[in-house]
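Holo model, glycinamide ribonucleotide. Inputs:
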Amino acid sequence: MTGKRRVGILISGRGSNMQSLVAAADDPDYPAEVCLVLSNRADAAGLAFAEARNLPTAVVDHRDFSDRAAFDAEVAGRLRQHGAELVACAGFMRILGERLTAEWSGRVLNIHPSLLPCYRGLDTHERALADGVRVHGCTVHFVSPELDAGPIICQAAVPVMADDTPSSLAARVLKAEHAIYPQALAWVASGQVRLENGKVRAPSSGDPDQTLFSPAIRAR
Ligand code: GAR
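Output:
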């Protein structure tokens, strides 16, 4: 493959995952470049970061559209206008409809703060703590019409500590998000990972000897 794939990043707020992608794309060897940072909220803090980095930005406020299809069409139009070939949802809190996800199938990624298929939707850390799970984490997946249900590209697991609060757990998961999202996007941009007949084709798996014990198990 020659050249870098152009990626549009969709955000709704803080934009720390967007920042991790922008930082990764600073590497001359990274296979993607950021062509647009688009927010559905004008007050998204992440926009200021993107503007300071001289990245093209856009605001498409969902409240200005009568329905999801019209909002999606505007978002897709802006992405096309900036030559986006891939889309990375990074804390983008709107559901993308069937038409857009079908048209961009295999080219839209999302990061979700749970080990999918557990805890789709909102308040993932609160729900994980309420259930008493000992392992939690995050997932990068291809976006499909069903919310948080698209084919999984990459996951990271973290331990849940006895004294965790939703925010301490969120911070631990977020650190893992910042590690896996740039890697997952690089795999897709370089063609090493792709969607084929609804399944993710990847060249390698994890390390079979690596187990996360939570709580930790002392060596005997
Ligand atoms: C991240 O934890 C991301 O996984 C989550 O929102 C946060 C955004 O933070 N996304 C979702 O919940 C999507 N359903 P950021 O704006 O700092 O990247």
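The CA atoms of residues 113 and 139 lie 7 Å apart. The pocket of glycinamide ribonucleotide is lined by residues 11, 13-17, 90-91, 111-113, 174, 177 (CB under 6 Å).
Archived with the compound record.
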